[in-house]
Amino acid sequence: MLRDITIGQYYPTGSVIHRMDPRVKLFGTLVFLISVFAYKGIVGFAIVTLFLAALISISKVPFRYMIKGLRAIMILMLITALFNLFLTPGEVLIQVWKLKITKEGVMSAIRMAIRLTYLILGTSLMTLTTTPNQLTDGLEKALKPLAKIHVPVHEISMMMSIALRFIPILIEETDKIMKAQMARGASFDEGNIIKKAKSLIPLLVPLFVSAFRRANDLAMAMEARCYCGGDGRTKMKPLRYQSLDYQAYAVLILYLALLLALRVVL
Fold it and tell me: Residue 18 to residues 13, 36, 152, 247: CA-CA distances in angstroms?
């Protein structure tokens, strides 16, 4: 289950999307997230689905690898769907005691499940096609105007980069600790909710200790290299837009305009 998390991992394929400027991919992810929550009808669903399928195909990242990330959020999707199913007022289809399943609740649960699925796939696509260093440089460059009002843009970008780098490391560390505890007789699946929560203590304590130790080692390494923020720092590979990036911007703007027009018309 833990190894199914794909957010924060990089999958090199040398595709067109991999070669794009990270600022384009950040903007594209933002546009896609807006489009996911901007539509309601079947036509909007179809357009967003085709757009996402085209991006996955162009990225050359195996679809089976991408959907692995959905397994980690199945419980969250189920809880969200149940809340929408039972708490949405409308035309009652089934009633058991005080629980009512409405027609509007069924449609809302389906829409929310699809949106969460697309949300994870779209975010995973960005991280799978962009290295953490590229994401840091792109985010810092995109937010650079905010530095004029004293927003710590470089520090924010650095923290996001470090967080993305630590996701796979912590997942691997958690997997190792779980296997070590299970070899000593620990069980994480037996008993009720309270027992399962207590069984996580032998897992969480060494995991937090390991995370703090890694963070301390990273801080000492940065200090030893005289790291003092982004003032006066230069880039080994400065970001420059290519013709491919301008074409991608045009496609994204047309895609967003089409969905917004459909929302107004339909």
Answer: 7, 23, 28, 15
Instruction: Tell me phi and psi for residue 9, to 5 degrees.
Output: -100, 155
Residue 204: Cβ within 10 Å count: 11
Helix, strand, coil content of the chain in percent (nearest 5): 70, 5, 25
Report which secondary-structure segment, H or E, holds 93. strand 92-96
Q: Which of 126, 123, 132 is nearest to 158 (CA)?
A: 132
Q: What is the DSSP letter of 185?
A: T
Residue 139: its pLDDT value, please?
A: 84
Enter the tokens of residue 123.
């975010």
Residues forming beta bridges with residue 94, ordered by sequence position: 101
**Predicted confidence (pLDDT) per residue in 193-224, tens digit:** 677 777 777 788 888 888 888 888 888 988 88
Q: Which two tokens stand for residue 106?
A: 């069924």
User: Beta-carbon neighbour count of residue 120 at 10 Å?
Assistant: 21
Q: How many residues does the chain have?
A: 266
Beta-carbon-side half-sphere exposure of residue 59 (alpha carbons within 13 Å): 24
What predicted TM-score, i.e. pTM, was given to this entire model?
0.75
Q: Which residue has the tokens 């962009």?
A: 130
* Distance in angstroms (rounded) separating the CA atoms of residues 29 and 125: 9
For the chain, the C-alpha Rg in angstroms (whole number) is 22
SS3 231: coil
What is the crossing angle of helices 42-59 and 22-38, to 10°? 160
